[in-house]
Fold this protein.
Amino acid sequence: MSMWGGRFEEGSAKEFREFNDSLKFDYVLAPFDIQASKAWVNALTQQQLLTHDEQQQLQEGLDQLALDIEANPKLPLSTEAEDIHSWVEQALQDRLGSVARKLHTGRSRNDLVATDLRLWAIAKSHSVGEQIAATIDALIVFAERYEYSVMPGYTHLQRAQPVLVSHWALAYVEMLERDLDRLKQARDRLSVSPLGCGALAGSGIAIDRSFLAKELGFNDLCRNSLDAVSDRDFVIELMAIASISMVHLSRLSEDIIFYCSGEAGFFLLGDAISSGSSLMPQKKNPDVFELIRGKTGRVNGHLQAMMMTVKGLPLAYNKDMQEDKEGFFDAMQQWQQCLSIMAYALPHLTVDEALAEQSAELGYSNATDLADYLVGKGIAFRDAHEICGKLVLTALRKKLPLEQLKLAELQAEAAEIAEDVYAALALRAGMDRRCALGGTAPKQVHSALRRARQRLQAQLASLTHIRQAKLSDVPKIAELIRYWAGKGEHLPRQEQDIMQAIHQFAVAEIDGEFVGCGALYVYGTGLAEIRSLGLKEGLQGKGLGVEIVQCLLDQARNLGIGRVIALTRAPAFFAKIGFEIADKSRWPEKVMKDCEFCPRKHACDETGLEIRL
């Protein structure tokens, strides 16, 4: 079925249709086209352009189509429809008759495809976000397993200084966390609705676009109809994030490939993620990681193609934009697949800890430790650097490591060197000295691991059920607080107070329905408190409370807050998140502001806990 045939006296040539039609790839938008159409039916009914009987017929028809697509996602490909929009209309018309011909009233394929593509991008970015989190989790587990194992660190692919294996893994955690942050920010930006903007100038009917946006789950509306139908910034941005993230995965893969090679050998590939050679029986190849490295170019290529597609397009919609989908779909799919296989593969890597530590001692990697030792003896670093260089030459000539040079040989370059130099040159001693924040000292890495795990838990919470509260949540938050205040669990709060403090609240949802909340209150001294934490009755024990707290702690970290407190009758709940019992009397901010006016001031049965971020 064509959506534009009335103007034409003859049908389209088969060659033109094969070149022009997009159903062969945009069929994946079917669930989102149906979702947008269901919302459009309701909006048309609001404007009395459909009767309630017609609304019901169309909604039931669309629901059945959605079930058919769920059962067979490639169902549209069995037809000769031009695109997914015409397929939906034709399928409805086959089932419902002429009422289906009213569906397209007041809308265009231009605003519809922009809506479908945004809905697909939101859903895909969510599933990709979960895969990034899974890969971060796999890296953290790997780091925890080899927390105190030592390996060589490299610059210029030359052994430089020893690092902990866990420190190496956490470097990639940092990269992937940035990818996840970028993805979440992009998702917020793309969550604006173009539906109702028509072909380019707006709909010819007074459609309620805010109603449409809310029904489809968008955060806001596109503000300009020309921009709404022609904007593909969100496609470019998501592919740019995918490209950056793939570069990170490629770098991780390159490290693993090298560390598993015969030249390094301190990482070992599990059989489950390895292949062999058809000719050389001894080979064990890191194909997984080489493929990730190779697919990086593919994803980056899609980004460049999209940039070239839009670079010279005039406003508004142009058929060139049909080229936005195949590369976009493939880039996002390849990114998700590479993340998934990386998360799967990491547990199949092991470290030959003895060989890795032995390798870390080679290459005069303790030369910097010797320079630091000399600085401690009062020698200027530049002079210490020169002295150490000469001692490395001496050791090279003798084919000995620095720590095996005799004391007299060391003192020949610097009389300040004493017997204690040998302890300073020991592998673990040098690592312990790297104790500044961000360094590879075991104490610092242990702390970094704990913080990475906390951040991941907060990210998982925000990906699943938790979001920032909105003004529209105020009545539900107030009702929940009243419920628990009535049971003596919360201090009562006025709805007006909640509205003024709405930025402090996070809310929990299940299937889009409000089920809980919590707030982060910041005192004038910079201390913060978890408050008004509660779930609807019967939902305790499902992890939602933990997710709310993790989200609030992440907010505190972003604000630069170093300490968060909680006053509770459920100390075990907070303890499992990492809070520790604390003395309430050391919180003058809390005591003076709230405790002074609490009815249970002299018979307090709540436990004080705090956590340092």
In short: The mean pLDDT is 92.
